[in-house]
User: Fold these one by one.
Assistant:
Number 1:
Amino acid sequence: MEILAAVSIHAKAPMQLEHVDLNTELRPDEVLVKVIATGICHSDIGFRDEHMPFPKPAILGHEGAGVVIKIGSAVTKVAVDDHVVLSLASCGKCKSCISGRPTYCENVSALNFKGTRTDGSCPYHNHDGEPVNGLFFGQSSFATYSLSNERNVVKVTPDVPLELLGPLGCGLQTGAGSVFNVLRPTGGQSIIVSGVGPVGLAAIMAAKISGCTTIIAVDIHDHRLELAKELGATHVINSRIKNISEEVQNNILPGGTDYGLDTTSVNSVITEILKSTHILGHTVLLGMPSVEKLEVDQSAFLATGRSLQYVNAGDSVADLFIPKLISLYQQGLFPFDKLVKFYDLENINQAIEDTEHGITLKAIIRMPHD
């Protein structure tokens, strides 16, 4: 079938809208999804700019939501016409997967970043018959249709607007899951979050739901810090103006916070977040590193027992966690719709530019369908 896709050709170059042929002769475990809308994540931009490898030309996009229109012969989890959110692909067979940790799948690279199926076949081609790399994060949802696998489609309720739900598959799941599933704060505890884009704001909302009574948001943009306060932050720090750890230790919570969470991947910021936690504090890192090496000051660790952990996709089981987030949204506890701005597919490059410049927190691309 012919689909319309935003194709990345070169690093840092605008994506091009192209008609692409998609082979819809499904393998037994595959699912064909009509994409209604897709969130833009900073990882999409990072892979476009080749900070991480993915072969070009490529159809990126990994926060898709849509309607199932066809299933493979062995698929039982979803049926035609089901509403679904697309998430990270995993094999379901390795040690990590069978122990309930699919975000650490041992086959994550082959399933998400190869550009083809694991056997080397490519279901996407241009009109000259040349392959177009797809299956990005198991979905390549910067397109009107997505070929996915049964394992990375999550059935969701039809009671919530489907166009809103795609970001739950990656960014929002990552922020909220890192709090709920990894840090697991209890009532009265404290956390500091650096970088309050969508991932950080999801973490702040999760911390509020968890009962944290001190929630510190750190950013360089005052408008983001204002939104962080609206969503649950009790204190804010503009790190262009104030030293993070000094402000925490001297003026907000002497002794430091129980937990830290960083979405910036900036070494100097990570050091400050570590220094902002108390002895035996636990800090998690999220997001794509902007530099090759992680370097933090030894003084942040020395004789403190502080720990630092990298977390993938919120350490979540998407089939369980995404419906939980939707339920929290329906109860008014996780109002992620306050982060969203919608764009049409033809304006995807403007949406990416607005995301890069902090104009838009969470851009969602609506797909054109008759």
Note: The chain is about 25% helix and 25% strand.
Number 2:
Amino acid sequence: MIKERVSNLHEVGKILVNKYKGSFVNCLEQADNSAQKLLELVITDFPCYRDEADYQGHKVAFYKRAQILIGDIWASFRGKGLGFFTDIDSITMFADYRIPQSLIHFGALKYSDELMAILKSGVELPSGSPEEVEIRACCIHAVSMVCEEVHRLLQEEGIQNLSINSILIDHFLWDYRRQHAEQLETIPFHKTRCIYY
């Protein structure tokens, strides 16, 4: 989808030049250290970041690329300066096609036999299809539950100076999948062609 991605780059470049004086820093400054404000700015001003689907008549918003943008800024600046957000914990995991493999491996997610058969067949799931939306949404929910459990365990152990959020869990799961690619390759992943991940 190189043409679509190049088109996205052109779109973003034009908006940055016309609305933000050619610098994303100006967008960051408008967000006033709020991850949610920055997310809203990005999905409002940059249409190619509007990762949304219709699921049984309801709008489902994933905003994977917009959230990973915010998460990467936060991580790159170690939560300081341009990467300081007062509400960074409101960002969800970045719903893609590889994290489910790690979640299944650890038992935090399980596919139905019917879905597993579809995925093993290698058939492409259309972007916005019920199966694709369900996989992505369940991953967000699973990581949120893992995050809650980690918070509970830290509190139980009296550990107060350690911060955890869905971004860090996503990074762990992504890295784990890469480091154990051969082992996790036996778990099928959904194949979807889109510009959102």
Note: Residues 1-89 form one domain.
Number 3:
Amino acid sequence: MTGPEHRGDRAASRTADLPSVCVVTHPLAAAGENATRSLLDILSAITSVSLVTADLPADSEIRERHELIELTQKGAGNSVLVAAFRFLLNQLRMCRVVAERDEEVVLFFGATSYLLPIIVARLLGKTVLVEPRGDVPLTLRLNWERELPDAVAAALAGAVRALERAGFAAAHGVVTYTPEMARQLDLHPEAPSVYPTGARYVRTKEFSVERPYDDRDRVVGFLGRLDEEKGVRELAAVARSLPDDVTFRFIGDGDLREWLESDLSDEVERGEVELTGWVDHDDVPRQLNDLALLVMPSQPTEGLPTTILEALACGTPVLASPVSGVPDVVREGETGFLIESRAPEPLRETVLDVLARDDLTAISENGRELIEREYSFEAACDRYAAILSEVR
């Protein structure tokens, strides 16, 4: 089994044995939608599943592929007060919907601070799981600091973290992507109520090694949103200072696109830096197959960036920040390398040290083998089937 379109008899037999699942999420932005679609694909292959959410994009594939209960088409809001009001209102709506659903398991995906519906689901006798996608309180604090005094932002984020911790305690179990992600959320990966190997899956046929590593040029790349949080300014400084025989490629679009075009105009003109702009998802495997190294100075807010898994599936070594679940996948000197500093000069030296290694072909192969072994669709289905079997 390599994807949700190939479920087979084995998946059909699972459905009869496992409890049905109602997935509950907060309003979904693009990144959240992708992660939720991945989870739904896994669950729908092993049991019956529905989704309760808000503000789902009109063109989302989820609308056609899964049973959907949409609380509202409004997002979280642009101000703290509006967001707080909608946060409370959506919790009340979730309570009503959860009470009406027949599923035996309610899985709060990302919506781990929605304490009221978590408690209501438990009181109704349902099995409750919570699955964080990253460090939401930290993400909120960083966003709020742009418009509020730091002390106020910290206090509000602290309140959200308290709600999240209460949600962890109230649930029957907490699912994390990897054991290291559990630790960074102050959860013990070996605790009976913690399931530390939920993770995601990669479409291993779509994301595969199309260009052997030895045939690749010395192209170093970043793939993602071009904004402050992704370390794009630091990467621009690195790109400017690399030797002439190394090309740096920025793959993606975002708020810093115009700044990059201006700041690196000379390097772009000489062909030392490339800006691809927005890339359709179907073209991502080809882009990853062109790279000798993917650099991802990830934020501590992220759980396990999908781009890292997709790069490894394409045999592309990854240099990434050791945040959340990343070290469980980017294994130093085995499948990739960990960033010690995001400052331009030490990051530049690390990139050059990596490119000078004589074992990158073996590291490329190790990355692909890891994805096939632990992050294929079949492996993800097995993990979630085991979790549901244990909590029922």
Note: The first strand starts at residue 21 and ends at 24.
